[in-house]
Amino acid sequence: MSLVAADALPGEFAFTDADFEALARLARSEFGLSLAVSKKPLVYSRLARRLRARGLGSFRDYMALLDLESESAERLELVSALTTNVTSFFREKHHFETLCEALIPELGLQRRVRIWSAGCSSGQEPFSIAMTLLNFLPPGTRDTRILATDIDPAILRKARQGRYAAEDCETVPADYRHRWLRPVAGEPEMVETGPDLRALISFAELNLICDWPFNGPFDAIFCRNVAIYFDQETQQRLWTRFSGMLRAGGFLFIGHSERLSGPALAEFTTAGVTTYRKRASHGPSRPT
Ligand SMILES: C[S@@+](CC[C@H](N)C(=O)[O-])C[C@H]1O[C@@H](n2cnc3c(N)ncnc32)[C@H](O)[C@@H]1O
């Protein structure tokens, strides 16, 4: 009979409050994730499969494993298990309308266009941005690039493939679908993004709470439904860092349940639902 501490959840693996606190500390310091104690049952159910996969008997053993320097891949599995990759094409459609109605018309003669999709998951967000830009700025007319980053290497592999179930593409406007998505040979249920779209996007692995190896400035940053996992201090630091990456007048788009707060509020004006613009007085960042 195994000894299970009184505060452990009933189930296959021992998971004490001390284990939970150690896990929450690690998730916060390495990934900015905020795990309230009320999430303990959810954390248990999300991570139980990792313990099974690694042949471990308790969360204490799992914590010991995560501590090993050689286990960086397991630490990423942890983030993957604690966050979701839910996304879709043209999610929160009003942000794409703002691209068409405000950002693109204001570009004027500006040749260099830079957009960052931060926390891009399986790629539907940067591909939606790419379709919107290409519709108004045909290939070759500007120097246009989209940087698409995520912490999760497995989801980035999927994003780079750019292959999606046809039914997941129903939110793509029909004319965009015909122009930039094509059937996958031999897989009638699947479609893939075409070369014009892919050519605009660079995918890269990036933990948003670590250093960013680029300078910008960006014309727009999409960081939607990512900061929701972070504690308030991490969120506020992120908003301020985004401000430093945007040109004056640049757009910041965040998720439907997220709000800007803290010192960065002074650096932005509100420009629509979960849409912010960097104030001119804060000036552009250094170009790369
Ligand atoms: C719910 S998805 C959002 C996808 C897309 N932005 C959207 O709104 O449809 C959240 C993404 O954030 C990523 N993520 C979580 N923590 C992160 C971190 N510390 N740094 C970078 N990405 C992170 C996850 O891997 C996941 O793909």
TrEMBL record:
Q: Does the keyword Transferase apply?
A: yes
Residue ranges occupied by any CheR-type methyltransferase domain in the UniProt entry: 8-281
Keywords linked to the UniProt accession = Methyltransferase, S-adenosyl-L-methionine, Transferase
Q: Which domain of life is it from?
A: Bacteria
Name assigned to this protein:
Chemotaxis protein methyltransferase
Protein EC = 2.1.1.80
Q: Which reaction does it catalyse?
A: L-glutamyl-[protein] + S-adenosyl-L-methionine = [protein]-L-glutamate 5-O-methyl ester + S-adenosyl-L-homocysteine
Explain the purpose of this protein: Methylation of the membrane-bound methyl-accepting chemotaxis proteins (MCP) to form gamma-glutamyl methyl ester residues in MCP.
Stretch forming the signal peptide: none
Q: Which SMART domains match?
A: MeTrc
Q: Does the keyword Methyltransferase apply?
A: yes
Q: Which PROSITE patterns match?
A: CHER
Q: Which PANTHER family match?
A: CHEMOTAXIS PROTEIN METHYLTRANSFERASE
Which EC class is this protein assigned?
A: transferase
Fetch the SUPFAM superfamilies from UniProt. Chemotaxis receptor methyltransferase CheR, N-terminal domain, S-adenosyl-L-methionine-dependent methyltransferases
One Pfam family this chain carries?
A: CheR_N
